[in-house]
Amino acid sequence: MDIEVNGLRKRYGRTIAVDDLTCTVRAGRVTGLVGPNGAGKSTTLRMFLGLTRPDAGTVHIGGTPYASLAHPLHTVGALLDGAAAHPGRRARDHLRWLAHAGRIPRHRVDEVLERVGLTAVARRRAGTFSLGMAQRLGIAAALLGDAPVLLLDEPVNGLDPEGVRWIRTLLRGLAAEGRTVLVSSHLMSELADTADHLLVLGRGRLLADTGVRELIAAAGTRTLEEAYFALTAEAVEFR
Ligand SMILES: Nc1ncnc2c1ncn2[C@@H]1O[C@H](COP(=O)(O)OP(=O)(O)OP(=O)(O)O)[C@@H](O)[C@H]1O
């Protein structure tokens, strides 16, 4: 299920957060949405989910705008920055509550806990979780609806190397199942080994829509990180 984006724009006062974004996010691969702080990544993802209203443009998910999807939670799973469980709530109860609210069968809760490796700590309160465990719980919530489209805002943020490796394997597995996986990061290094395709944003503009290998090839002898810095040099917020 592809995501088709056409002429998407969002302005906050004098800041143009997203500037005429047109692209297609394809199924069956991991697409990285990468750009420096303030590039417009979160605003873009929020517009995909209908949480922020665009000034112009459209987003269609499998041909339908999010707001018109018949089964939104079974179509798009999302992890947004700061989407956290109440600290006093046990991990399993948090997911049961989300499943109940979204009319998702209860057995999915144990399935997603297993998939993110939290089964053993499912009875612990979310407030006692490490950053990495909390991140896994957020990903479990995104997986609850078994959706073909997954939008993950900075899922690698704060993970240790083992966590980074784990998430890489998970995302690649989800794409191999044919899902559309869109994952944002401000660090190219986090996505280099995970993404098949990259959308590079800078100050709201799409600077590159390219395969990871093509970007490296185009950069000549540069590493991917250097190619990214060269591409976004003009777009860094504070220089
Ligand atoms: N609700 C808002 N009100 C005003 N300005 C906003 C709002 N949301 C975002 N912005 C501005 O829009 C621009 C893009 O922000 P956005 O959060 O989408 O970027 P980002 O790429 O996700 O950045 P980061 O990596 O820092 O999270 C920034 O200049 C930001 O300050």
TrEMBL record:
<dbReference type="InterPro" id="IPR027417">
    <property type="entry name" value="P-loop_NTPase"/>
</dbReference>
<keyword id="KW-0547">Nucleotide-binding</keyword>
<protein>
    <recommendedName>
        <fullName>ABC transporter domain-containing protein</fullName>
    </recommendedName>
</protein>
<comment type="similarity">
    <text>Belongs to the ABC transporter superfamily.</text>
</comment>
<dbReference type="InterPro" id="IPR003439">
    <property type="entry name" value="ABC_transporter-like_ATP-bd"/>
</dbReference>
<keyword id="KW-0813">Transport</keyword>
<keyword id="KW-0067">ATP-binding</keyword>
<dbReference type="Pfam" id="PF00005">
    <property type="entry name" value="ABC_tran"/>
</dbReference>
<dbReference type="InterPro" id="IPR017871">
    <property type="entry name" value="ABC_transporter-like_CS"/>
</dbReference>
<dbReference type="GO" id="GO:0016887">
    <property type="term" value="F:ATP hydrolysis activity"/>
</dbReference>
<dbReference type="InterPro" id="IPR003593">
    <property type="entry name" value="AAA+_ATPase"/>
</dbReference>
<dbReference type="GO" id="GO:0005524">
    <property type="term" value="F:ATP binding"/>
</dbReference>
<feature type="domain" description="ABC transporter">
    <location>
        <begin position="3"/>
        <end position="228"/>
    </location>
</feature>
